Amino acid sequence: MEYINRAVENKFLRLSNFFKVMLITGARQVGKTTVLQHLARDTNRTFISLDDSEARKIALSDPVGFFNKYKPPIIIDEVQYAPNLFIQIKKLCDESDLRGQFWLTGSQKYLMMKNITESLAGRIGILELHSFSRAELNGCQFSEPLTFNLESLLDRADHAKPTDKSEIFQRIWHGGMPQILRSNAEERTAYFDSYINSYLLRDALEIGGISDIVKFKKFLICCANLTAGQLNMSNLSRIALVSQEVARTWLQFLESMHIIYLLQPYFTNQLKSLVKMPKLYFWDTGLCSYLARYATPESLQNSNASGAFFETFVIGELLKGYAYSSVVPEVGYFRNSRGDEIDLLVQTDQYINPLEIKLSAKPDAREIKKFKIIEDAGFKLGAGGIICMCDEVSSVDEHNFIIPIKII
Hints:
By secondary structure, the chain is α/β, with parallel strands linked by helices.
């Protein structure tokens, strides 16, 4: 299959010229290895995978000998399998001023972080790779991160590929995992079934220490059916038939494996959101829709969950775009005790940009009235608007706009 350029590439190379070590993390099968091998083409960089039992055995038993055999510049794939390599990498970094000599990949970021912070602090840059975004698949990588002023929105609209609800739900249902971009329905089903059993459940057992795989799989399905919802631990544990403590531990594991994302409520002393619960989202909507048992894009589009999956898709597209940009903003959502909710707050500089997400081509412009909550709390209210299925950018007022999904 022809290589598809990833939005992370430029940022990775910039940081590789600054840090001595680069680590790219992400869920299994999202293309971490492929990206680094592509960036290393036409160079003399060595590639070693610790999935290989012989290489792993040397790495675990003799880190010094490992680097005598496999010399930098080097790519070490799935480095979490040999955490003792970090001490030797630190030593080699301290002996040289060369940048970008060590490129690492790993699927369990949190599993590695203790070793990284202890041995490679100040020497390592860390980026997270996700499954393909719609922009990447369309070959439409915008030069600047998304901002919400009218000029920026119109510029993006001029370069964006048109879409409709059918295409969006095809993309939501299919997801962005590299191996199934051109698969049919049967192949997609077989892939996700294998992905869950060969990777997620195995990692749950071997890495997460989760012994009851049957209950964990049911827990996964419960999470998928709650995507874009507030995380009520009591409700989740009741539905999944596990204790709240177990549910909390399993969620932490899924988050560490880059399967789910917990969007935290925006909370400061000035903006007192009384809701402290995060909202749960899946990084890959294809995996989520498979777990939730939607057999076709049409069944998903026509379901009561269509709005929740559309919101999951929009949040994921936005967060993927920000993750690969030069400046990563703070994000959160807002909900108060009166039930006023703003789907996403994006803080850039001193401004908070409020966003609503609606599965409609003609959303109710009165939704923006809620944004005044932010201004009344003393914050500088930036440009915002409603992300929806409309065709073109239009103004609600001087600072708020109707924003088509195609430009995200």
